[in-house]
Amino acid sequence: MYFCSIEKYMTQSEENYLKAIYHLGRQNPGVISTNAIAEEMQTKPSSVTDMVKRLAEKGYLNYRKYQGVNLSEKGRHKALMIIRKHRLWETFLVEKMNFTWDEVHEIAEQLEHIQSEKLIDELDRFLSYPKVDPHGDPIPDRNGDVESRNSKLLSNLDINASGICIGVRDSSSSFLRYLDKNEIALGDRIYVMEKEDFDDSISVRIGNRNLQLSHAIASNLIVTQELE
Amino acid sequence: MYFCSIEKYMTQSEENYLKAIYHLGRQNPGVISTNAIAEEMQTKPSSVTDMVKRLAEKGYLNYRKYQGVNLSEKGRHKALMIIRKHRLWETFLVEKMNFTWDEVHEIAEQLEHIQSEKLIDELDRFLSYPKVDPHGDPIPDRNGDVESRNSKLLSNLDINASGICIGVRDSSSSFLRYLDKNEIALGDRIYVMEKEDFDDSISVRIGNRNLQLSHAIASNLIVTQELE
DNA sequence: ACATATTTTTAGATTTGTCTAAATTTTATG
DNA sequence: CATAAAATTTAGACAAATCTAAAAATATGT
Ligand SMILES: [Mn+2]
Ligand SMILES: [Mn+2]
Ligand SMILES: [Mn+2]
Ligand SMILES: [Mn+2]
Residue A46 to residues A35, A166, A192: CA-CA distances in angstroms? Predict the structure, then answer.
């Protein structure tokens, strides 16, 4: 619970840093290093230091010199609101604007910075309160709550096990187009038939088709073994 | 016809200047002064000079020192594309997002800078190719063509004449809310019953209601006497 | 026409976000 | 533990867009 003083809008750059820091925090919890942020943001560590100081100043980050950062409660909430917008816009683009799932990310990167709470809540309603975006990533609700799911990487399933594909870890255009080409879609049940020790590739069955998937592919597909 | 070299994106600020210059050119054709642009953009003449030089450099404006500017063909086309986006987004917000016509302008000012031709063409389709925005302003098509309409200001109609309200000259929230409060809407036929010499106010009839409108109001309502 | 007012441009400063290069701190290693 | 390597921060510069104050050009009035 934080005080809602008359906060000025953040710049797009500030918002992008917060989002990057949130994502890095998910990948490996704990404190996040300057270098990691620089890598994620495709910029220099010195630029990161500057921005990190500003965000800490404004209360979005906890920061100790040379020790890295993590998000404050206020920063976490803000990051989740940006991610909510990003994923709702991606859903809009696919559901209503005839975009494919590999075309939406760049445009959502722009749209996520539009400032209007009403717009985003109306968009949510218009899309019938979707739970996940076109890539299977969960959409935080207006309070910043995200449904957590019991998920695994396909590459970690045992032989003879199966799971329903619910997301992708890498949502680059090239990976998404690979999946399209091989007719692998979210919602498909994937059975692991064989695992090759030599290169960690796996044989899977989807519907009535058998496919050979490299480790690079299998380790980027997220599956669930729970009932929905 | 201009060559489509690999143009970098314009900044939002550059786009806003182009739009302002376009609007000023409509208001009184000919050359546009630095001061007029500064007034429209709520900034200082010196800032205008800087920006005008850059836009001229890039071929969007014709500019001679101390002589003012006007849009080149390339600049006019670019301005129309931004206006197209603005008005399509306003239409979207009213038609699909439950916004009222007095709430949409500020958000459209943000959305008009989103860069995606496909998105804007899909939005056009999604909205069934609207001809006008929620304020009655015509929406340029994807080639930059705008339907011109035969319009007058209500204040210029003769006694006993009538016209259909097709637009507003001032689309500030306060004016739009005044119209809502007095149940004056686009599409209404307005009859001029009486004109008061003293203060230029007029008596009108809309449906079965009689209203007294000040000159300030009547001179901001656009009507047409043509059949649609 | 020519002094005065107005408009426009220039010069120099500021803010945001970035960069490179150098300095500092932390971490790893013999 | 001392020293080398790696990570991080500082210092100083730059580009975009803005500002104020001053200079230059244009317009106006008698
Ligand atoms: Mn995305
Ligand atoms: Mn996504
Ligand atoms: Mn508008
Ligand atoms: Mn409008």
Answer: 9, 38, 46
b/e per residue A192-219 (b: at least 16 CB within 10 A)? beebeeeeebbebebeeeeeebeeebbb
Q: Which residues touch B130 (CB under 8 Å, ≥6 apart)?
A: B88, B91, B95, B124, B139
Q: Partners of B191 in the beta sheet?
A: B162, B205
Give the count of alpha carbons within 13 A of B161, CB side only.
Answer: 17
CA distance linking residue B10 with residue B25, whole number of Å: 21
CB B152 within 8 A of CB B225: yes
pLDDT tens, position by position, B33-42: 999 999 999 9
Query: Sorting pLDDT into bands at 50, 70 and 90, what band is B228?
Result: very low
**Distance from C-alpha of B61 to C-alpha of A190, rounded to nearest angstrom:** 59
Q: Of B7-16, B21-30, B198-207, which has the strongest mean pLDDT? A: B198-207
Q: What is the largest CA-CA distance in chain A?
A: 59
Contact A119 B107 (CB under 8 A): yes
Which has more confidence, B4 or A26? Answer: A26
What does the alpha-carbon distance between residue A202 and residue A181 come to, in Å, rounded to a whole number?
A: 18
Residue with tokens 């439950």: B98
What pLDDT shows up at residue A28?
83
Determine the Cα–Cα distance for residues A61 and A73; give it in Å rounded to an integer.
8
Alpha carbon distances (Å) from B113 to A1, A90, A114, A171: 34, 17, 10, 25
The residues whose Cβ lies within 5 A of ligand 3, an ion, are B 105
Tell me the two tokens of residue A89.
């816009």
Q: What tokens were used for B151?
A: 């319009």
How deeply is A6 buried, as exposed, middle or buried, from its count of CB atoms within 10 A (0-12, 13-18, 19+)?
exposed
Q: How many CB atoms lie within 10 A of CB A9?
A: 9
DSSP notation for B204-227? EEETTEEEEE-HHHHTTEEEE-S-
pLDDT reading at A226 higher than 90: no
Residues with CB under 7 A from strand D: A 33-36, 45-46, 48-50, 52-53, 63, 65-68; B 11, 13-14, 42-44, 46-47, 50-51, 54, 65-66
- What percent of chain B shows pLDDT beyond 70? 95
| Cβ contacts of B6 within 8 Å, gap of 6 or more | none
Cβ(A170)–Cβ(A162) below 8 Å: no
Q: Which one, of A84, A79, A73, A85, lies nearest residue A21 by Cα?
A: A79
